[in-house]
Each structure stands twice: as C-alpha cells, then as structure tokens.
Design the sequence.
C-alpha cells in the first residue's frame, strides 16, 4: 500500500505522550498513530475510546493542574444542561 505523509501539529504534552506510548509498545510514533487511527475507524473503535478513557484517568491530575478544576466543573454543568 502506498504511503502518504500527513503532518499534524500537537502540543508538546501530546507529542511527549505519543512518544512514550509508542516506546512502551516498541514501535515508532508513526506506526502508533497509524494504528490508533485504524482502530478508531474500524470495528475496534471502542478499543480506542477505552484507551482514551484510561489515559484521561491516568493524567486527570495533570489536566486539572494545567486547566484548573473550575474548567472541569463548568464543562460538567454544561453537559448536564444538555440532557
């Protein structure tokens, strides 16, 4: 299959996380991202969502520190207002 180059810009934290996860899996960042997209667009999309949820749980404190707890409570309140 022919390969096409895709350039994306992400914040440094996302780039670092991608590098770490790829290294932990013994693969290149390119291969890691490619597999995530394949999983997300295929029948195993739920696997990606579960992995993302696990990631968020693992880094919840980092996100809270970076963006503040007020932002989370505002988002949750907006979500409840839509129900």
Sequence:
């Amino acid at each position: 299959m022919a390969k096409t180059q895709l350039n994306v810009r992400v914040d440094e934290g996302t780039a670092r996380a991608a590098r770490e996860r790829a290294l932990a899996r013994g693969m290149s960042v390119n291969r890691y991202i490619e597999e995530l997209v394949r999983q997300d667009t295929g029948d195993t999309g739920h696997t990606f969502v579960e992995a993302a949820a696990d990631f968020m749980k693992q880094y919840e404190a980092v996100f809270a520190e970076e963006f503040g707890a007020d932002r989370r409570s505002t988002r949750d309140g907006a979500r409840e207002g839509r129900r």
